[in-house]
Amino acid sequence: MKVVSTKAVVAVLAAVGVVLPAAPAAAHGRQGTTYYVGGWGKPAFAGRSAAAPFPTIQQCADVMVPGDTCLIMSGTYEETVVPARSGTAGQPITYRPAPGADVTVSGATRVSGWTQVTSAAVQQIAQTDPYAVGSPFSAAVDAGHVYSTAVDLGSDVSTVQIFTDKRMDVEAQWPYPGLTLLDPVFQYAKTGSAAATIVDPALTRPAGYWNGARVQTNYWYITATGTVASSDVGSVTLDIAPPCIHKIVPNDTRYALTGKIGELAAPGTWFYDAPAKRLYLYSEDDPSAHTIEAKSRKLAFDLRNASHTKVAGVKLFASSIETGVGSTNDVIDGITATYLSHYTDITRGATDCGSTVTRGVADTGIVLNGTDNQVINSDLSLSAGNGVALRGQRNSAINNVIHDVDYLGTYAAGVAVQGNSQTVTHNTIYRVGRSGVNLQWDNAIGGTPGPDRIAYNDISQYAKLSLDVAAVYTCCGSDMLQTSIDHNVLHDPAPRKGVTSFGVTGVYADNGQSNIVIANNVGWGNPEGTIMLNGLGSCSCNNGVYNNTGGGTFFYVKGPGQSTGTKVYNNIGTFRGLTDATNGGMVLSNNLAPEVDPLFVDAAGHDFRLTDASPARQQAIPLPGINDGSTDPVPSLGAYQYGAPMWIAGATR
Question: Among 72, 116, 308, 447, which is 20 to 30 Å from 476 by CA?
């Protein structure tokens, strides 16, 4: 089952965001037809029964009209499905597995034809790369652990993705990172590093060995890529210093070097020679005994021209789904997707900070453009970028489990929120490179802008590959129109720090974000507390920080006008940076004094409800819609109202 080519006109329409029409008017109100797909089908079959199915999902997509359903029987389908038509509000078009079927739509293609690399081949490689001889690669060849095959994977090595038995291999690099993508081995620049030069005694390869290699660096909040201009024993100099910070910082900047076949010497690694169109693989045994695959398609379902279309219950491997700017009411329900998006070139030649830090934010993971589209009840994992990208307006990510994403540590996230009027609720998000939710405002997309809602999410193990971050991070200098970040449980970040510590918190309104309601959030394990406000650059103005548990940190809020209209009421926990904050315009009231024990039910067990004897009972300023529900006549401080049912965050799928 291979990918089915699509009509040229469909591709053109997709590029400009034109949504395909539904069926003619005569079809409205018709009884929907059920079509069947099975790997044993034939193109000539009518697809109207399980006994005579279409061989590809695309054949379903070519014939279905509003109200129709495509039932897919067990198998792996190597294709990108491009619907020929949209459904309608009353008659959506549906793709889902047949009852009991296990269906995978794969973006990968098997790679075969492996032969063992010999020492004679090493000598031939040395004609263009003299450092191959005597390298760890040549030692692996002598041990019989290197194989190769001819395959065209394109000219851009940074997009190559290889799998062995459905697990992603990594490009040969130094240091060997291991195969756990969110917990790679780190190597830090050492004393003497500065500007664009990395100094490290562990760099023992000969002078010139690393010339032309690709380098990935990370410091503070910025992960970037570049090229080695020159190298010597103990140092490499990049073609340009990393964007944003413009320097290598000793014992804080970590780095990795790729693009040299000499490093192909560890399990689960590969090297691709793009000019020769040859793939090399380190393997302890014959790769032919395994399933070796390469990513060859970006999308499993291309919904950029489709509306009122539902994709339910399928699995995706090495591929994703994208809707278009004109798409509306598409639903992605109950899918399981692994290895959604992959890339390794972050900077892409840019020298500006913004395009580097935001690499992958807009175009990776499940991408919902348009309006009123949803991804719900799904398990999404393993992406260089996002789990989900919400663009456009009124799109939603609800009741999903999203994990092991942003393994490059950029501003991509479990859910990257752009556009406006978006909803992110009842998700469980864990093990992410930077943020669980990255909230970036955009009111220039057409339509009337409105607030986002980020609520009832359970987010943990964030900040694994980046710092100055939060479980829910938002930046910079925007009026958020009363966006609400509420009833989230934000806990147990997992930062790996160099010698300098940077902020890690639960909710972070960075660089002058204003007009946000941050209420009823609970956090623990966050070095800066549950809430962090930064008024630098403009003003942390008109924010409402209400009834949160876990304290926080405020900075750049003391100067004239730096926190005008921001109200901090009814919170429990220690807040740093409050001294003189009222000079900036902040209003502080009815927060539990940090020296007072709130008498939680079980703080050690993270049950932050209030006991009968809690001094936080009946102490809050009443805020309708924020602290309703207490059985006391006056509301409680903190995120849980005394006597009210305990609210629950996270997915229930």
Answer: 447
Q: What backbone phi and psi angles, to 5 degrees, belong to 582?
A: -65, -20
3 state SS of 15: helix
Whose tokens are 């009518």? That residue is 46
pLDDT of residue 21: 53
**77 vs 475: CA distance, rounded Å:** 40
Show the beta-strand stretches assigned E in 336-468. 336-338, 366-368, 374-376, 379-383, 388-390, 396-398, 401-405, 413-417, 423-425, 428-432, 435-439, 453-455, 458-460
Nearest of 75, 163, 653 to residue 379 by alpha carbon: 653
CA nearest to 195, candidates 152, 131, 157, 240 = 240
SS3 605: coil
pTM of the predicted model as reported, rounded to 2 decimal places: 0.95
- Mapping DSSP onto H, E and C, the string for 19-52 reads CCCCCCHHHCCCCCCEEEECCCCCCCCCCCCCCC
| CA nearest neighbour of 177 among 367, 369, 372, 344 | 344
3-state class (DSSP) for residue 270: strand
Asked, as a colleague might, if the bond just before 353 is cis with ω within 30 of 0, I would say no
User: Cα(262)–Cα(610) distance, rounded to whole angstroms?
Assistant: 61
| The pLDDT of residue 501 | 79
In this structure, are residues 575 and 554 in contact, taking their beta carbons and an 8 Å threshold? yes
- Return the pLDDT at 10: 35
Q: Is cis: bond before 250, omega within 30 of 0? A: no
Q: Is 561 left (phi over 0), alpha (psi -120 to 50) or beta?
A: left
Residues of the chain with confidence (pLDDT) below 50: 1-19, 23-28
Nearest in space to 528 (alpha carbons), one of 499, 548, 512: 548
Give me the DSSP letters along 50-113: TTS-BSSHHHHHHH--TT-EEEE-SEEEES-B--SS---SSS-EEEEEPTT--EEEESEEE---
Residue among 547, 544, 526, 535 at smallest CA distance from 462? 526
Amino acid in position 349: G
Residue 8: predicted pLDDT: 37
